[in-house]
User: Which sequence fits this backbone?
């Protein structure tokens, strides 16, 4: 079965510093991986996806993610964090019929 | 990107009553719609998958008689929580997808906060 894991419940970074939110995956076949962000009492907003092609995927709001097949990882990154990036981030993998989500990582960016 | 709306955004009801939540794809036709629930500080858990004109497929542990899903058109799916109880209080999120190809993006609604008193 397709699954993703987010090993960190919480990530804290200072504004202006680079941020990384980790995700590892377990799939049979080619992975279709996604990152979403959720603000309080809101639905999910799509950030980026990896289907095929370049391992470095660029997405919305300056975020990017690096697909690493050997490490089965798809970490989300941003060179310079903003306070407004503080939110809940979900990694997801496309299964046969639906999307499966990781447990989520709460990112807090402090001024 | 495509827009998915949910109505209502927030609902409070008494225990024992039924609540209907609507999910609409506003600018595309959704072949498949999904319903998720999310408890505080937890991830989204898939409840059911529905294809237009077909019966919904429920995940293990989800009571189909309690969570009635109707996907009568390509732009509308409804979730009815029947005889709601306080433990049904949660954040319900719908999602819609065009087609079934891998890589087709799922678009998510803003969610509905259900509180059962």
Assistant:
């Amino acid at each position: 079965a397709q699954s993703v894991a987010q090993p960190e419940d919480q990530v804290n970074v200072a504004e202006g510093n680079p941020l990384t939110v980790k995700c590892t995956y377990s799939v049979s076949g080619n992975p279709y991986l996604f990152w979403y962000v959720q603000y309080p009492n809101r639905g999910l907003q799509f950030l980026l996806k990896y289907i095929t092609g370049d391992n470095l995927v660029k997405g919305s709001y300056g975020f990017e993610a690096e697909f690493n097949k050997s490490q089965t990882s798809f970490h989300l990154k941003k060179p310079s964090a903003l306070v407004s990036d503080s939110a809940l981030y979900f990694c997801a993998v496309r299964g046969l019929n639906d999307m499966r989500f990781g447990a989520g990582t709460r990112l807090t960016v402090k001024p | 990107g495509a827009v998915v709306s949910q109505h209502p955004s927030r609902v409070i009801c008494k225990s024992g009553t039924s609540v209907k939540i609507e999910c609409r794809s506003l600018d595309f036709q959704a072949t498949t719609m999904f319903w998720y629930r999310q408890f505080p500080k937890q991830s989204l858990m898939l409840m059911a998958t529905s294809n237009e004109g077909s019966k919904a497929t429920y995940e293990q542990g989800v009571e189909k008689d309690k969570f009635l899903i109707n996907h009568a058109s390509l732009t509308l799916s409804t979730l009815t929580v029947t005889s709601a109880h306080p433990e049904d209080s949660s954040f319900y999120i719908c999602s819609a997808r065009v087609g079934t190809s891998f890589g087709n993006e799922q678009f998510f609604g803003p969610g509905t906060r259900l509180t059962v008193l």
